[in-house]
Amino acid sequence: MDPGRDRALIYHLLYPLHDVISVLRVFRYITLRTAYASLTALAISLLLGPALIRSLRRFQIGQTIREDGPQSHQKKSGTPTMGGLLILIATVLPTLMWADLGNRMIHIVLLTTLALGGLGFLDDLLMLRRGKNEGLRPRQKLAGQVVVGLLLGTYLYLYPASAELGSALPVPFFKHLAIPLGLACIPFTAFVLVAFSNAVNLTDGLDGLAIGPTIVAASALALLSYLAGHRIAADYLQIAAISEAGELTIFCGALVGAGLGFLWFNCHPAEVFMGDVGSLALGAALATVALLVRQELLFAVIGGVFVLEILSVIIQVGSFKLRGKRVFRMSPLHHHFELLGWPESKVTVRFWLISIFFALLALSTLKLR
User: Fold this and answer.
1) Alpha-carbon torsion 235, 237, 242, 243, what sign?
2) Which of 122, 296, 334, 353 is least surrounded by CB atoms within 10 angstroms?
3) What are the residue boundaries of the structural domains of the chain, listed by start?
């Protein structure tokens, strides 16, 4: 279902002129609006980035580096943080411009992204006011994430994204296998949201490290959203056909453009860090799209780098508590490779390559059913 409805802002402004300028008919199509959402987001990032970085420096909003981290990171202390605000602005505005504003899935993904972004903003703000790497208490941050996740889960239980699947969880590789979750879909949704928002947060430890896999994952989710919203393609690939999901392609496209623009300033040596306002929002955005297109399990493969990062922390903590020994030199996983002697840029680029591998692997399984 490629043609969009008539409630996208740009469509509403330009399409009525198609009788005079016939080329404006193309603004009906999701593919074109996705491309322009990406370009708009990239342009906003590149144009607003320098001004935002100057403002962050002016107000002395600098990163506090944890003392127990790699010593090579101490020189990054004072680098402007909360750059995730740039990602949010550059994602939300193009989505409002190019997506169908009457589509409930656009409402859901924007609200969830902004809610976790707001939680991250509060955490960053408290860190800056206290002048040390301590914002919200872990329990407070987790409670905020869980509340948002439970609200999202309750909504999706009452108003399922897919009427055909309901609250059942589709299993990759199988044509008609879906696990009936019932009410359990509410805590499951919360788990997915909390897990991936924290996973992106943990991955955000090196210049450009978190935003690279985010761009890759958003690109893969853009394709899955488009396929889910296209009845013929969904039936051919035997995935859930969700008519409203097509518009999520535009959100994902905007996220890709915003990520590329942010990477311009975040690549090594970084001029700005995204902070929790960025990492929590990005994790929530990706997880919410995966939940809405009903590809939660496949997303665990697409976001494989994020999964490895959070698993490394769980394994490290569990091993130390149970055996008194560490498995890795330091967790999350990227710090382990740093302490093995890998330069920061090498760790980052190799993690990007691994994220591309995971995304391609996941997408290649669409016909293995």
Assistant:
1) negative
2) 353
3) 30-367
Residues with Cβ within 8 Å of 44's Cβ and at least 6 positions away in sequence, in order, are: 89, 90, 93, 94, 258, 261
Give the whole-angstrom CA distance, residue 246 versus residue 257. Answer: 18
HSE-CB of 5 using CA atoms within 13 angstroms? 13
CA distances from 341 to 67, 72, 349 (A): 19, 11, 15
Alpha helix stretches (DSSP H) within 134-293: 138-158, 185-203, 211-229, 231-237, 248-266, 275-292
CA distances from 56 to 86, 272, 332 (A): 11, 9, 27
Q: Which residue has the tokens 């306002």?
A: 277
**b/e for 225-255, b at 16 or more Cβ within 10 A?**
bbbbbbeebbeebebbbbbbbbbbbbbbbbb
Of residues 353, 369, 201, 207, the one with CA closest to residue 295: 369
Q: Both tokens of residue 321?
A: 């508590």
Distance (Å, whole) CA 39 – CA 45: 10
DSSP assignment letter at 55: H
Measured distance CA(111)–CA(207) in Å, rounded = 28
Each residue's pLDDT tens digit, 225-275: 999 999 999 988 888 899 899 999 999 999 999 999 999 999 989 999 999
Q: pTM to 2 decimals?
A: 0.91
**Cα(331)–Cα(312) distance, rounded to whole angstroms?**
6
Three-state DSSP state, 3: strand
At residue 8, the 3 state secondary structure works out as: strand
Instruction: Judge contact between 45 and 37, C-beta under 8 A.
Output: no
pLDDT digits (tens, 9 = 90+) for 59-109: 766 565 555 555 555 556 668 889 999 999 999 999 999 998 889 999 999
